[in-house]
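<instruction>
Derive structure tokens from the sequence
<entry> Chain with its tokenised backbone below:
===
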Amino acid sequence: MTTLPADLADPRSSVRLRAVMAAGTHPDPEDLDVLVEQCAVEPDFFVRDMLTWALLRHPADEVVPRVLPELRRAVPQARSQALHTLSKIGDPAAWPEVRPLLEDTDDEVLRAAWRTAAALVPDDERADLARTLAVQLGIGGRERRLSLSRSLVALGADVVSPVLAAARARGSDAVREHVADTERLLHDPDAASSLALERARREVALGRTRSAKG
């Protein structure tokens, strides 16, 4: 019989996926450290998603203390996966550890930090978080912008609407465009797909994308 560490070291993603599914189906506290470590190095998206599921099968008070140190690792994937897991657990006690990653220099980590912060922020800090996120309006490509819009919307219209109004009043054309997209998403949560498509079309029209040949 193979062990979980041996299965997770297998080069075949199908083997790793089955191993993680088995670990989640039959949770064993002895597997926790191995599962958390794999989050930092697992190359396959679907296996990473299953790793989070497997971790969620354990009590939060056993998982959170193991995941929080991952936020301080130099490996970006360790930080982003830890954030993803914490957002799913929803333990507000993790908020002080999450907040510093709102200044992370890795784009994937930063986007994960936005989502996690919106899920964990205390009610009395929601307005401050909205203002912090609003600084990022108008920056980056469509995926980054949509991710930021979703995180802002998650804070609620009562908090976000005045922040968006202030950004629109003093922002650049790119900021005002992003504000408009966010406000549309705020009033129609199902608009995300159409926003992504429209943004892609605008970028093509403005020559911001490159051909497949580079």
Notes: The first helix runs from residue 4 to 8. Residues 208-214 have pLDDT under 50 and may be disordered. The chain is about 70% helix and 0% strand. The radius of gyration is 19 Å.
